[in-house]
Amino acid sequence: MINLKSMAAALFLGLVLTGGTASAQTANTSSIELSLPGSQERLLIGGGLPFGLYFPLAGTLCRLVETADEPALCAVATLADSDAAIAALQDGSLPFALVQSDWLYHAVRGSSRYQETGPAEGLRAVAAFYTEAFTVFAKATGPISKISDLKGKRVSVGADTSYRGILANVALATAGLERDDLAEASAEPVVTAIERLCDGQTDAVVVMAVHPAEYLTAAGRRCGITPLSFSDSEVADLLGDLPGYASVVIPARTYPGQAVPVKTVGLRPVLVTTVDADDAVVGALTTAIARGLTRLNEAHPAFSTIRIEDLTSASLFAPMNPAAARALGITAQQ
Questions:
Q1: pLDDT per residue over 209-228, tens digit each?
Q2: What is the rounded distance in angstroms from the CA atom of residue 302 to the CA atom of residue 306?
Q3: Please, what's the b/e burial string for 153-180 (b: 16 or more CB within 10 A of its CB; e: otherwise)?
Q4: pLDDT (tens digit per residue) in 286-304
Q5: How many angstroms separate the CA atoms of 117 and 115, rounded?
Q6: Domain edges within the chain
Q7: CATH 3.40.190.10 fits 132-267, yes or no
Q8: Which of 97, 130, 133, 180 could bridge to 266 as Cys pair (CB 3.0-4.6 Å)?
Q9: Which of 17-31, 73-87, 107-121 is predicted least confidently?
Q10: Residue 58 vs residues 21, 77, 96, 232, 303: alpha-carbon distances, Å
């Protein structure tokens, strides 16, 4: 275990995101303990890598903690992915970390990639946030208005092993289709695929995105693309085939030419702790998040649509920490 007290001069106290500036403190959490001069302790939240969204989200949560009615020092640690976050929570390296909802769902149940290691019974959810939604974009004035219309069309589905590719297969199945029913199934990067859609070189593009996404808004203005909506039964089928996903509604007029709400599914970042967490700390953190929701919305475009019901949706993926549940006004199921 590395004690960083001697490195305090190199660690600016309370480094968090302010005014959209990425200034959150980082630490490799495989075997690190943060300590401050004067034995002051700080809350530590594991986020993702600095170029993703989990890192600024963790930084914003820290900012809410540090400016709460009863403020506490807070810092952000970088983590390679959700598996690293789960490992750090389980070995006690971190008290809190952001975990992708499907990884969390499988970890607590010992399913999928966690089948060999067994259930992570000590993990507890605190709050969930924005959704990275599965969507299929097509021309608003074209012949494609529902998933079954993709038959015989050119579709950018992404690489076979990517989230785009996996979700494309599941979505096609809800309409009784397979990739062989498509005229073309291409795997170029999504931004390139959207450009090809605008230029008429492909007919539809499978997208995983936090909405609204600027590149999709720009394409909507340029050539009138719009996301397709799934029916209620199709959403139910998707959720049945995709454990750890949540239903999503993209509001009407999110994109130019999108006249109606779009129903689909997606993944959420979930703030996670363990059964050993201090109730007072968890309660204070959750209360700071709930009371600071407006500021959270203003911190980043991706966070602008987060509502209280998004926070409480954490219970879909793992048992809720009781103190977090009380702070959010819901009942925890142990």
A1: 999 999 999 999 999 999 99
A2: 9
A3: bbbbbbeeeeebbbbbbbbbebbebeee
A4: 999 999 999 999 999 999 9
A5: 6
A6: 2-129+269-328, 132-267
A7: yes
A8: 133
A9: 17-31
A10: 13, 9, 10, 33, 12
